[in-house]
Amino acid sequence: MPLTRAPLVDPFGRDISYLRISVTDRCDFRCVYCMSEDMAFLPKRDLLTLEEIDRVATAFVSRGTRKLRITGGEPLVRREIMNLFRSLSRHLTSGALDELTLTTNGSQLSRYAQELADCGVRRVNVSLDTLDPEKFRKITRWGDLSKVLAGIEAARTAGLRVKINAVALKGVNEDEIEGLMQWAHGLGMDLTLIEVMPLGEIEPARLDQFLPLSVVRARLMDRYTLVDDPYRTGGPARYVKVAETGGLVGFITPMTHNFCESCNRVRLTCTGTLYMCLGQEDAADLRAPIRASADDALLYRAMEEAISRKPKGHDFVIDRRRPRAAVGRHMSVTGG
Ligand code: SAM
């Protein structure tokens, strides 16, 4: 029977056009809201090889995926990761893919920025929650701010558009958001703010970290003119233009506003598990079908079956009655 190459559409009529791939669960930082200090990592033998990741990504591209985001863990600490970028770039050249991009903590960008640009990467998201070196060290436990700033500079020099992602943390960086915005916009970079989500068990209490972006937005509006902007990257952020700086601020509000209605995304972990929703436990194994046969028929069937189970949305709650994580896995597993 010929393989059907129809685009993947979920039961709610949403086209699945965006695949996020976590290429490793390892990271050279231990951000306090993301990981516990003594994380147990997966044995290397459980990981998909880079060739297997390419195969799954390519299957998604042939079924309508237009955007690939490489993430982790820290994607740039996976060995030989540039081989994956190089091979996936053929889908940009062929026109099958609109965008190949990554989310990184920036620590390795100085080394890889030019190569990423050469592979057709045009934009990178760099996660950075503070510009204060001491605070940076406290949040990341292990990170060095100067390396990240050098990485951002290298990316800009290589011609990559950089967007800064910052998680809004109560009592930690809430007094710095305006400063981060001024800095980012001054360098022509947009800033996206993210609400902390209850993913995985960590040492600090989530309720202590959670800062609703409605509060941040109201504070910015006291001092700036925020104008709703139609700009979209295909992701969950909603943007405003700041009249005084000319830059954009994005808000990702999984907690205070459910962003599921237009969800076009699925997430592949480094072991080949496909999560149809960031905030639900249901998943599909794609590693078994690719290892069972060199032909993609089984893989396509597993992908179709998975998408037919994509849930309508998630329901995160952080309050005193529900102190535990909404889902057990950390963001570093599913891929942020
Ligand atoms: N290492 C890369 C980085 O730092 O961007 C990619 C992976 S990281 C898990 C992706 C993003 O998820 C980062 O911006 C991080 O701040 C964010 N993140 C991690 N845990 C989170 C949580 N519990 N709630 C909200 N954002 C989280």
From TrEMBL:
Classification via InterPro entries: Aldolase_TIM, Elp3/MiaA/NifB-like_rSAM, MoaA, MoaA-like, MoaA_NifB_PqqE_Fe-S-bd_CS, MoaA_twitch, MoCo_biosynth_MoaA/MoaC, rSAM
Protein residues bound to GTP: 20, 69, 103, 163, 265-267
Annotated catalysed reactions: GTP + AH2 + S-adenosyl-L-methionine = (8S)-3',8-cyclo-7,8-dihydroguanosine 5'-triphosphate + 5'-deoxyadenosine + L-methionine + A + H(+)
Binding-site residues, [4Fe-4S] cluster 1: 27, 31, 34
Cofactor: [4Fe-4S] cluster
Alphabetical keyword list: 4Fe-4S, GTP-binding, Iron, Iron-sulfur, Lyase, Metal-binding, Molybdenum cofactor biosynthesis, Nucleotide-binding, S-adenosyl-L-methionine
Binding site for S-adenosyl-L-methionine: 33, 73, 127, 197
CDD domains (UniProt xref): Radical_SAM, Twitch_MoaA
One Pfam family linked to the record: Radical_SAM
Coiled-coil ranges (or none): none
Domain named Radical SAM core: residues: 11-237
Cofactor note: Binds 2 [4Fe-4S] clusters. Binds 1 [4Fe-4S] cluster coordinated with 3 cysteines and an exchangeable S-adenosyl-L-methionine and 1 [4Fe-4S] cluster coordinated with 3 cysteines and the GTP-derived substrate.
EC number: 4.1.99.22
Pathway membership: Cofactor biosynthesis; molybdopterin biosynthesis
Annotated [4Fe-4S] cluster 2 binding sites: 260, 263, 277
Family, as annotated: Belongs to the radical SAM superfamily. MoaA family.
PANTHER family listed in its UniProt record: MOLYBDENUM COFACTOR BIOSYNTHESIS PROTEIN 1 (PTHR22960:SF0), MOLYBDOPTERIN COFACTOR SYNTHESIS PROTEIN A (PTHR22960)
Quaternary state and interactors: Monomer and homodimer.
Function: Catalyzes the cyclization of GTP to (8S)-3',8-cyclo-7,8-dihydroguanosine 5'-triphosphate.
Protein name: GTP 3',8-cyclase
Organism expressing this protein natively: Bosea rubneri
